[in-house]
Specification:
Blueprint: E1 2-9, E2 21-29, E3 36-40, H1 47-54, E4 62-67, E5 70-71, H2 77-86, E6 87-90, H3 104-115, H4 121-134, H5 151-163, E7 169-173, H6 181-198, E8 201-206, H7 209-212, E9 218-223, E10 226-232, H8 233-238, H9 243-250, E11 301-303, E12 305-310
Parallel strand pairs: 3-8, 3-9, 6-7, 7-8
Antiparallel strand pairs: 1-2, 1-4, 4-5, 9-10, 10-12, 11-12
Helix pairs in contact: 3-4, 3-5, 4-5, 5-6
The chain binds iron/sulfur cluster and magnesium ion (MG).
Iron/sulfur cluster (SF4) binds next to loops.
GO molecular function, one term: ATP binding
Main location: membrane
Family: Belongs to the ABC transporter superfamily.
Length: 330
């Protein structure tokens, strides 16, 4: 759970003259145990910063991150070591995060040396063989080196490393965006299946809604440091209310049902997070912007039912995209 979580970069001490970058601005969300939660947005929207705040790789400027009932935003020492076991990270580029001189078996076992030093060598090997089998890597490949594996297999190694300590939460920052499109779905589905099987809570950061469409329980859409829409995957994908979400959905490179070409398309650049527009931060690119959008910040508020929330003054007036069921015809 996060509460009014904010991360501003710069603007302190030596950097007084540099602009304050509002990378993450007042984000409150709650990830439920065991669910797969996706955070989506264009690069520069602050989603990686949010992921690093959740992992306590960064300290927030204000607000808090609560994990297992404890505020971890300033955790240090033994608390931090425990967190590193309970929360694991899967990086974007599996190759750069793997030491090329270590065998795959050693790489996968490495987190155990820190977090489970009591294990014997045989116990460690058994755990490695078990997790390799779970991620679909032949156990007899444990003696090979990372360069002998394909990109998709290397990300399976990354997943095995993340899961071997038995974490409660795994955060993947664009875990498949460096992979060929053809293997993205395989790897993301594997991640989803494993988290379900092992009861691990999964937070996936992505810039592409298509990638996480079928594996997430809930989705938060970020724009310039704020959440603009949040709900179950079903709510966000089949009845998006925020013009930005609609535009992101329209940009998914996939055959679309007829009529969906009426959807908003994104034009223009995302403004710099160092100088976010006042009011609704999306107003400079929003085809539906009205005068009040430039002055008044829209809060996230419930749409239908408490789970679907949108931050737009005018979502009710904006036509839902064709193809999205509004009201079932009788
Ligand atoms: Fe567009 Fe206004 Fe809604 Fe922002 S609040 S998304 S500018 S209509
Ligand atoms: Mg990023």
């Amino acid at each position: 759970r996060t509460d009014a979580l904010t991360k501003h970069f710069g603007g302190v001490g030596f950097l007084k003259k540099s602009p304050v970058v509002q990378a993450v601005d007042g984000i409150s969300l709650e990830v439920k145990r065991g669910e797969t939660f996706a955070i989506v947005g264009e690069s520069g929207c602050g989603k990686s910063t949010l992921a690093r705040l959740l992992m306590r790789l960064l300290e927030p400027t204000s607000g808090e991150v609560v994990f297992d009932g404890k505020d971890i935003s300033h955790a240090a020492g033994p608390d931090l070591t425990r967190l590193r076991r309970d929360m694991q990270f899967i990086f974007q580029d599996p190759f750069s995060s793997l030491n090329p001189r270590m065998t795959v078996g050693k790489l996968i076992a490495e987190p155990l040396e820190v977090h489970a030093p009591e294990l014997s060598a045989a116990e460690r090997r058994a755990k490695v063989a078990d997790i390799m089998q779970k991620v679909g890597l032949p156990a007899e490949h444990a003696g090979r080196y990372p360069h002998e594996f394909s990109g998709g297999q290397r990300q399976r190694i990354g997943i095995a490393r993340a899961l071997i300590t038995g974490p409660k939460l795994v955060i993947g920052d664009e875990p498949v965006s460096a992979l060929d499109v053809s293997v993205q779905a395989q790897v993301i589905n594997l991640l989803g299946d494993l988290s379900r099987e092992l009861g691990v809570t999964l937070v996936v950061i992505a810039h592409d809604l298509g990638v996480i469409r079928h594996m997430s329980d809930r989705v938060a859409v970020m724009y310039l440091g704020r959440i603009v829409e949040m709900g179950t995957a079903e709510e966000v994908f089949s009845a998006p209310h925020h013009p930005y979400t609609q535009a992101l959905l329209a940009s998914i490179p996939a055959p679309r049902p007829e009529g969906e070409d009426r959807m908003t398309t994104l034009t223009g650049e995302m403004p710099s997070p160092a100088a976010p527009p006042p009011g609704c931060r999306f107003h400079t690119r929003c085809p539906f912007a009205r005068p009040d959008c430039k002055t008044t910040v829209p809060d996230l508020s419930a749409v239908e039912g408490a789970s679907h929330q949108v931050a737009c003054h005018h979502w009710q007036e904006i036509d839902a995209p064709a193809g999205a069921p509004q009201q079932a015809p009788h």
